[in-house]
Amino acid sequence: MKRLVLPLCAALLSAGAAAQSVTMFGLVDLSLSRYEVSGGRKLNTLSHSSNNLSRLGFRGSEDLGGGLSASFWLEGALTPDDGNASGFSFMRRSTISLAGRWGELRLGRDFTPTYLNDGWFDPFNATGVGTSAVVLQRSSSNSRMPFALGVSANNAAYIRTSNGLGYHLPAGLGGFYGQVQYALHEQTTPGSRQGQYQGARLGYREQRLNIALAAGKVKGANPASAVAPDVTSVNLGASYDFGVLTLMGEYARDRYVTATATFTGSGWLLGLSAPVGPGAIKVSYSRAKIEGAGTPTAQVMALGYVYDLSKRSALYTSIARIRNSQGALVAVAPSVAGRIGDASSQGFDLGIRHQF
Amino acid sequence: MKRLVLPLCAALLSAGAAAQSVTMFGLVDLSLSRYEVSGGRKLNTLSHSSNNLSRLGFRGSEDLGGGLSASFWLEGALTPDDGNASGFSFMRRSTISLAGRWGELRLGRDFTPTYLNDGWFDPFNATGVGTSAVVLQRSSSNSRMPFALGVSANNAAYIRTSNGLGYHLPAGLGGFYGQVQYALHEQTTPGSRQGQYQGARLGYREQRLNIALAAGKVKGANPASAVAPDVTSVNLGASYDFGVLTLMGEYARDRYVTATATFTGSGWLLGLSAPVGPGAIKVSYSRAKIEGAGTPTAQVMALGYVYDLSKRSALYTSIARIRNSQGALVAVAPSVAGRIGDASSQGFDLGIRHQF
Amino acid sequence: MKRLVLPLCAALLSAGAAAQSVTMFGLVDLSLSRYEVSGGRKLNTLSHSSNNLSRLGFRGSEDLGGGLSASFWLEGALTPDDGNASGFSFMRRSTISLAGRWGELRLGRDFTPTYLNDGWFDPFNATGVGTSAVVLQRSSSNSRMPFALGVSANNAAYIRTSNGLGYHLPAGLGGFYGQVQYALHEQTTPGSRQGQYQGARLGYREQRLNIALAAGKVKGANPASAVAPDVTSVNLGASYDFGVLTLMGEYARDRYVTATATFTGSGWLLGLSAPVGPGAIKVSYSRAKIEGAGTPTAQVMALGYVYDLSKRSALYTSIARIRNSQGALVAVAPSVAGRIGDASSQGFDLGIRHQF
Predict the structure, then answer these.
(1) Residue A339 domain-assigned (yes or no)
(2) Does A60 touch chain C (CB under 8 A)?
(3) Portion 80-99 of C in contact with B at CB < 8 A
(4) What is chain C's pLDDT, residue by residue, as a tens digit (356 residues)?
(5) pLDDT at C13
(6) Which residue out of C90, C91, C92, C193 would a mutagenesis test of the B interface target, given it has the greatest number of B Cβ atoms within 10 Å?
(7) What share of chain C is helix, strand, coil (3-state, %, to 5)?
(8) Which of A111, A102, A97 is nearest to A173 (CA)?
(9) Secondary structure (3-state) at C112
(10) Which of residues 229-288 of C touch B (CB under 8 A)?
(11) Does the CB of C25 have a partner CB in chain B at under 8 Å?
């Protein structure tokens, strides 16, 4: 996603140091949302981040000469519906980088390579009621998993990892981009490597085409634990801009390995976004299932329109419908779910988003 | 209250977007305070926010053309006595707005219309030892309630609400100003609407006179619950600037409705502020009671002086005395109270406040 | 330590107030670290703040005329390895000051005078694997105490105090600097003064010599409590810049007074830092013991190199070895310790630090 930022000031530092630009940036997104389980509960809410993720951040970079630079990035999630009632932190990203012509070495907390395709190639940016089945299948953290199989998804390092070491390819490789990432487990219990992550992503982007392949692995609590199994993920995402519309799609496969069994979750998404008037229509269809044991399956159909008030501000609306079958439990909002197998649910967002 | 802010920078955005000004603003206020219950405990503290509420915030606005603008406001409370030991958040205000000649639509966490008169028409700004009996009567959150009646005040949406939708009248209505606000309850328990708020405020301000009427209602946990009853509030505040002094006053009425009984809390305040030297003297008398059941009554007498070092910085001192009768339990500081019915208490603040 | 800051902007305030400069500043420091107990556990981590303390802050000052100024300082710790998973606050420093030719009156949360020598006269700045035995002896908060004596160190006001009133000498006293500090206990339990602190520091600095003496006392929970005894601290630190290297040292003495016994912890440090290439070598040896009851003793030997990429950015590495004897339990990292008496431990940091 593109982000506009506000340079606070390029100002001369004391002690003869070189000029530096520190940037404060962020996004506030709130929507009136309605969630409804077919034949069941309804809920109206003021939801945050239904079009894009609300955040506040500070970042800066220093030119060290010779093509080298040092930089930092501190970014935290905002929940403007309740004023960050559970506290503000910098868990979206907290990194320090050293970069040169050889690429970028990045330390700290950051997105995993294996999550990026889930967000980039979803016209709904993996948020709001239009969030794809690929993401919902994986997101046990919000109770939306279709897991009737007695195993949690071990979401620990699905979206981000702490304690990470990353290397990113430099720009100017003829359209190729990529990264590898390793996150330390920091476990002191002998034998445990819970939270250890290793992953990589390689992509190619030119004027109209963008395609990226990612793979990674996160260690669970224990090989014998069903609650937090090892998870191996592979996904491939692509988009193509035809001018009148951009088509995008993703295929993802996650293997959950416990002592007693191995489950495979797989999903795919097909989406498009098309400029219409001063904004864009967005459509997606996605489908995810857990293979074996009845094969619980969830489908998400979503339709949205974003009306750009400016490059930074927009009104938007989305509607989505989720269908569960074979015991799947995915719902458009966890709080309204009631975890009723095979129940369908509908969601609606009407909101405003402002970047700064 | 007027607030001075520091424009960080009007800077050109990347990608050809229009110029934007993001403002960082705040206030730090600390005082040496002494609280004393007559014939009982004494406590010396370093207290925050005895003259005005300590805070740190970020806000910005974007001109969308045609009189339309989008803006955000993120503001969190500071407790500089302990460095925000319980964490920093944006619970003072977290909003996104769309504004035009027709007024302002505001979403997020914000003050309730029914609280505003309690702060605006109190010369002590509803903080410090001079906080009025009107506010103390309502503020169960700080244990200062005169409730010997086995019912809590349901303070959930007294000062602010999360999940709010507000509409504010535009400027230029010949002195009239006003707002309506609705906050969603977001309860998933069937039948519960706890936290739902609806309220409105209408005021008129010209050169010397300012007057405002507010009314609102917040839903309790359950009609049968004495712990969190429904609360209906009405209040009227006014001030008049005679030149040599500004007189102000407020009358407020709160109804607490439980399954078994209805209590009415009422209170009024009379105050003045008068410029003396490079600052101002502040005086207030306020009185609040719970009607019926013995009618516990609390009175607050407060006297203060603010010495302006500049438009942004001030030294100040306040003394106040609280009298309880008929079993009221209000105290100048909750920690020193001991909840001894009918005990009087005294408080003293000597502090410094700095806005930025 | 010297800190470079970024003036956000000197901007004209509204309402005719004078110009003000608000500064945002900070530091991000992450390292790959390895901790190892001899014959025992090993741990690899991504550690924050191994060269200098990661932080984010906002501060500003207003010239009030006549040599008087008002200022604020809000600074919070960053843990960029996990994105401040336990929340962001301003517990490093939260103060408001009034300053003039007579000095500075400072209110709020701040460093204690008795801690400052522990950081200033340690070439490793009291952080990372090179942290001196003087500090480790005192820091029960991180379980690194050599206390086999059944008494905690009462760390409450070791590094900082909340609720503090400080006075700092003005500049221009021929090299003398100093401060006194008093922190209110704010206890409401009769008889308890837990957390009350009083301390002072006096120093002298000229071109090559810097020397400072500090003394202070913090009240424990209760005279009869072994868990949080009263602690009296005295320390003397000094450094001398010979040009080719700077020698520094500290001697510190802490008395822990409980109802049943009095323990004395003492320690000293000898260190040096010497410019080598575009950076500096750092060496320190420190030793601390608890007198009586077997006299548990810990020694720390540390060696480091900081390679300056610029005035604000650096790469660094440190190695350190800790030796325990007579039952001391100090370890290079608390999580790896296992609290095995007399075990040695080794630590290694390789990191990057960036100030802004």
Answers:
(1) no
(2) yes
(3) 87-96, 98
(4) 333 333 333 332 333 333 457 899 999 999 999 999 887 778 999 999 999 999 999 999 999 999 999 999 999 999 999 999 999 999 999 999 999 999 999 999 999 999 999 999 999 999 999 999 998 877 654 334 444 445 555 667 889 999 999 999 999 999 999 999 999 999 887 788 889 999 999 999 999 999 999 999 999 876 555 567 888 999 999 999 999 999 999 999 998 887 777 888 899 999 999 999 999 999 999 999 888 767 888 899 999 999 999 999 999 999 999 998 887 878 887 666 555 557 889 999 999 999 99
(5) 31
(6) C90
(7) 5, 55, 40
(8) A102
(9) coil
(10) none
(11) no
Specify which residues C57 forms β-bridges with: C25, C75
* pLDDT tens readout for residues A270-283: 999 999 999 999 99
Question: How far is C-alpha A70 from the geometric centre of its chain's CA atoms?
Answer: 26
> Which residue of A78, A107, A167 is the best one to mutate when testing the C interface, meaning the one whose CB has the most C CBs within 10 A?
A107
Beta bridge partners of A181: A166, A199
Q: Which helix (H) or strand (E) holds A337?
A: helix A334-337
Asked whether the beta carbons of C203 and C213 are under 8 A apart, the reply is yes
For A179, other C-beta atoms within 10 Å of its C-beta total: 22
CA distance, residue B165 to nearest chain A CA (Å):
8
Can you give the CATH number for the domain in which C180 is found?
2.40.160.10
Find the closest chain B residue to A351 by CA distance: B107
Sort out which chain C residues have CB atoms less than 8 A from A109's CB and list them: 80-83
Cβ atoms < 10 Å from Cβ of C279 = 16
- B234 within some domain: yes
Helix and strand tally (H, E) in chain C? 3, 18
> Pick from B4, B309, B336: which is nearest to C70 by CB?
B309
Residue B17, domain member (yes or no): no
Tracing tokens 């007693």 back to the chain, one arrives at A260
**Are the CB atoms for A135 and A128 separated by under 8 Å?**
no
Alpha-carbon gap, residue A297 to A314, rounded angstroms:
34
The number of distinct structural domains making up chain C is 1
Residue C62 to residue B176: CA distance in whole angstroms:
36
Distance in angstroms (rounded) separating the CA atoms of residues C148 and C265 = 12
The token duo for A78 is 């905002």
Q: How many CB pairs under 8 A join A and B?
A: 153
How far is Cα of residue C13 from the mean position of the Cα atoms in its chain? 37
CB contact under 8 A, A17 and C311: yes
Of B71, B163, B188, the CB nearest to A46: B163
CB contacts of B6 in chain C (<8 Å) are 8-9, 11, 13, 20, 22, 60
Within its chain, how far is the Cα of A346 from the centroid? 22
C19 at interface of B, judged by CB pairs closer than 8 A: no
φ, ψ for residue B73, nearest 5 deg: -150, 115
B141 assigned to some structural domain? yes
Alpha-carbon span C131 to B56, nearest angstrom? 34
Structure tokens that stand for B274 in this block: 């008068």
Instruction: State both tokens at C300.
Output: 């720390």
For chain A, counts of helices (H) and of strands (E): 3, 18
Contact criterion met (CB < 8 Å) for B312 and C17: yes
Query: Which H/E stretch holds residue B120?
Result: helix B113-120
Structural domain span for residue C68: 62-122+130-302
- The verdict on a CB contact (< 8 Å) between A81 and B20 is no
What's the sign of the alpha-carbon dihedral A9, A10, A11, A15? positive
The top-scoring range by mean pLDDT among A8-22, A224-238, B259-273 is B259-273
Number of H helices, E strands in chain B: 3, 18
Contact partners of C by the rule of 3+ C-beta pairs under 8 A? A, B
- What span, in angstroms and rounded, lies between the C-alpha atoms of C80 and A163? 8
Q: Which residues contact B189 (CB under 8 A, 6 or more apart)?
A: none
